[in-house]
Specification:
Number of domains: 2
Distance between the termini: 32 Å
Largest sheet: 6 strands, antiparallel
Radius of gyration: 16 Å
Number of helices: 5
CATH topology of the largest domain: 434 Repressor (Amino-terminal Domain)
Shape: globular
Number of strands: 10
Mean pLDDT: 76
Length: about 190
């Protein structure tokens, strides 16, 4: 899968990682913690081939996977999701685009290591926020800013229109789909313990 990025690039703060692409940072952190690709994949609930694609920058993971990777690698999610703001300039959201959706981190830089993260997610018409079905510890709140959203949480499917919202236990497998003919824009707030 090719990755197209717009607006800005989700980059890491220099902490345990010395910078570089998402994949370079992931590989360096994995090696620093002494994990093989297979061991890391097992710990985060992914396939080894997915970790290899991430390290090769052949794909970007959804936020839920970034949170799981950060926990296992003993770093804050912001290591993967932000870069340091330019001093003296107003902070701007960082946008990333994949095949069927784009997301921007809305949480201010100095608060990205907290338990609460906010994102603007845009899902293309008649497509899914991939991968199909994911889960992470905590809770999730989604407000549809425009368009339509079909969300499957566990075995329950709900369709939401502009102005409608849902809150759920995000440890349940969930999938977001845009069933409409126009782009769907969401405000997504994640709470992770």
């Amino acid at each position: 899968m090719s990755v197209k990025q717009t607006g800005g690039v989700i980059m890491a703060k220099p902490s345990k990682s010395s910078g570089g692409s998402f994949g370079q940072r992931l590989k360096k952190l994995r090696e620093m913690e002494g994990f093989t690709v297979s061991a890391l994949a097992e710990l985060v609930g992914m396939k080894p081939a997915q970790i290899e694609k991430l390290e090769a920058d052949a794909m970007l993971p959804p936020v839920a996977d970034i949170i799981r990777l950060a926990r296992v690698l003993s770093v804050e999610p912001s290591v993967f999701m932000s870069d340091a703001p330019t001093p003296g300039r107003r902070e701007r959201a960082r946008a990333t685009r994949t095949a069927d959706y784009a997301y921007e981190t809305l949480t201010p830089e100095d608060q990205r290591d907290s338990h609460l993260m906010a994102f603007r997610v845009k899902i293309d018409p008649q497509s899914a926020h991939k991968p199909v079905g994911y889960q992470h510890d905590g809770e999730e709140f989604i407000l549809v800013l425009s368009g339509k959203l079909t969300i499957k949480v566990g075995k329950k499917t709900t369709t939401l229109a502009t102005g409608e919202s849902i809150q759920f236990d995000s440890s349940q497998r969930h999938q977001l789909t845009n069933p409409g003919k126009e782009q769907t824009v969401l405000l997504v707030v994640l709470y992770t313990p």
